[in-house]
Amino acid sequence: MFNSLKPAYTASVFATLMLMMSNAQAANVNYTFNGTVDSGSLLSETFSGSFSYDDLSLTNLGDESINLSTMSFNFLSNSFGLGNADVAATADFLNGVFLGVNFSVSSFDPAFALISGYGTGFLDDAAFAYDTQSGDAGYGSINFQQSNSVDAPAGIALFGLGLAGIGMMRRRVNG
C-alpha cells in the first residue's frame, strides 16, 4: 500500500519544500559604488566604496529604510565607515526597489553626504553632495552595482533535499 502512496507523498514533500524556499530572502546584500564630483571646487574628484545590509526585514511595501551593516567610503585619500556617520546610515527602498544610500559625515572638511533617491522614488536621483568650511558646495553623480547577495542557506538546503528525495524515490519506484 505504501508503494502506491510514494508518488503522492514525494509530490507533497516537494511542494512543501518549494513553498518554504519561496519565502527565503537573501540575508546579506552587498553593493559597490563609485562616482565623480560634477560641480564646485572639487570638480572631477572621484569617490568609491562598498556597503552591505541585511534585507530580512524588508517587506517590499511602501517606503522603507534598513540600517547598513557595513560601509566603506573613500574620498580625497581618506577612508570613512559607519563610525564616522552623523546618523545611522541606511539603504532606502520604495516597494522593495533600491533607491540608494543615506550616509553623511560632517566631521571632515568638506562635509559630505550620499543621498538616496528617496524623495523622488528613483535610484537615478541618488547623489553625492559636499559643503566646504569656506562655503563652497557641489554635487556628484553616483553609480551603484550589486556585487552579490547570499541566499538563505536553509532555502537552498531545503531545495536540494527535495530534489534528492525525488531522485531517490524515482530510483526506488523504477528500480
The portion of residues assigned to helices is 10-25%
Radius of gyration: 23 Å
Count up the domains.
2
CATH classification class of the largest domain:
Mainly Beta
Can you characterise this structure?
With 175 residues, this protein is an alpha+beta fold. The protein folds into 2 domains: 1-24 and 152-175; 25-150, Lipocalin. Helices cover 25% and strands 41% of the residues. It contains 2 helices and 10 strands, in the order αββββββββββα. It has helices at residues 2-22, 153-174, and strands at residues 28-37, 46-54, 63-67, 70-75, 78-81, 90-94, 97-105, 111-115, 127-131, 137-150. It has a 10-stranded antiparallel sheet, with no helix packed on it. α1 (2-22) packs antiparallel against α2 (153-174). It is elongated and about 80 Å long. Residues 17-23 have low confidence and may be disordered.
Keywords, separated by commas or semicolons:
175 residues, 41% strand, 2 helices, 25% helix, ten-stranded antiparallel beta sheet, 2 domains
